[in-house]
């Protein structure tokens, strides 16, 4: 199991989070987001992959951010097409396609993306494209038809840990490769709470889900 810490903004906070050694760190390039990133990403350890988060952006805009910030991957939160995903994969980067879920989901919509993205990410369907701050019904994933690994996102925080550990014991979690953490680990200043993240990480380590 990997961890992705998303919605990074402040340079010092980015460096503090990097000391926790997550597999991924996410930077949001969607101007309507309060976590919109418009600065310079400090140098990070090579084992931490930088993921750019986009919503209905053009190929040229995404490619520009990939090149400027040396991103290792992109996370697509909008109505992006399989054709766009294919063009992005040709850049030799990780492509993560996001799908939003609440209490039900038509998994047939995944089929056109099977060969053009590396991972799916399942987030909570809400008012915003992401960062809505609450979980969706994970039981929906019992019907997951693909063999593609997926990221689990949407309102995961310390209070959700017990439910998360139960989910990770169930068959539908077998292909869940990464937990995406964001708003539930923030202070009012949109900064990640290192103490909360470290405690959450330790409990997952103790439960043998991450190393």
UniProtKB/TrEMBL annotation:
Keywords: Amino-acid biosynthesis, Aromatic amino acid biosynthesis, Isomerase, Tryptophan biosynthesis. The keyword Amino-acid biosynthesis applies. Gene3D superfamilies: Aldolase class I. Pathway: Amino-acid biosynthesis; L-tryptophan biosynthesis; L-tryptophan from chorismate: step 3/5. InterPro entries: Aldolase_TIM, PRAI_dom, RibuloseP-bd_barrel, TrpF_fam. PANTHER family: N-(5'-PHOSPHORIBOSYL)ANTHRANILATE ISOMERASE. CDD domains: PRAI. GO terms for molecular function: phosphoribosylanthranilate isomerase activity. It is an enzyme of class 5 (isomerase). Pfam families: PRAI. It comes from the Bacteria. Residues 3-202 form the N-(5'phosphoribosyl) anthranilate isomerase (PRAI) domain. It catalyses: N-(5-phospho-beta-D-ribosyl)anthranilate = 1-(2-carboxyphenylamino)-1-deoxy-D-ribulose 5-phosphate. Belongs to the TrpF family. This is N-(5'-phosphoribosyl)anthranilate isomerase.
